[in-house]
Amino acid sequence: xxxxxxxxxxxxxxxxxxxxxxxxxxxxxxxxxxxVQRNHLPLRTVIENKYVIGKVLGQGGFGITYxxxxxxxxxxxxxxxxxxxxxxxxxxxxEVSIRKEHVEVYEYGLNRFLDEAKALATxxxxxGIVAVYDYFFSNHTAYMAMQYLEGKTWLDLLKERKKMPxxxxxxxxxxxxxTLRAVHEVGMLHRDISPDNIVILPNRQVKLIDFGAAxxxxxxKQQPFSIVFKQGYTPEEQYRGKGKIGPWTDLYALAATFxxxxxxxxxxxxxxRLEKDTLLPPSKLGVVIGKxxxxxxxxxxxxxxxxxxxxxxxxxxxxxxxxxxxxxTNEIHINxxxxxxxxxxxxxxxxxxxxxx
Length: 357
Hints:
Elements (H helix, E strand, L loop, with lengths): L21 E2 L3 E2 H4 L13 E2 L3 E9 L3 E8 L4 E8 L5 E3 L5 E3 L4 H19 L10 E7 L2 E7 L4 E2 H8 L4 H20 L12 E3 L5 E3 L4 H8 L15 H4 L7 H17 L27 H10 L11 H8 L19 H18 L1
Antiparallel strand pairs: 1-2, 3-4, 4-5, 5-6, 6-10, 7-8, 9-10, 11-12, 12-13
């Protein structure tokens, strides 16, 4: 028998207990509404007769992501709402309100948000990118309905264990590199890679989430928004309004994420490395890592973009170069002896045989 919406938790949409008053995951239903913040949509708000709003999954300076129930398909989705916190508010009808002086920049960011949704929807067959099912205007803003992921972020894993062996971290890094290469090939950038934007599913599949197109677009408009950079992960060119960004920008952030995973330490912030670079190689922190891999990693963490690898393919190739095994200097390699060496050996053998015979 199909469960009705009234029998599901208004926050996570799991089945309620027999009394319909308690959710095993979220607790008493009566207390859930009290947890909703002022700018969030209330639980069970219906958007365009298609989506029922649940709990907030995440919130940043430019958007709010909710768990939502897809009425038509009867599944849980992640519904991302464009909501730049510094210039937005919500009226009694749940519509987003913007002061007149901010309308132009708001609409500019809104259009970039939708452009990103359209672009990401073309990657729905790429296993490394969260699928986009739908995007639309409503409540004077825009929404993006995406695949609901049940997994842990790389940051979650690192909170549990602090750091991980290089081999295990590489098993996460390599799929992200393949995903990022596909994104870069169509001229897109992520712009916000960090451990909390990489999700590992229970089947070990790795997903890249939360692209930062709208956030970057607003910054380019040079408006006084409270844009919070992720210290240690953000390259120096993103701090500057006219910094030249490209694939090397994403590579820095991903390299910083990998560095954090294997060392247990967030890299020294790029802006603090401009005058004197104090970032230590992982081997200096006790990490067992090949010389070639470490060299490739540190090059991607160069402060200046022009000194880094310029493409995913370049960096991946460098990371996978095996270290040359050093030969024992005391070992004699007969196959490398010169001709005169062979003659000496033969003469010595002949003389020795004559003596004993």
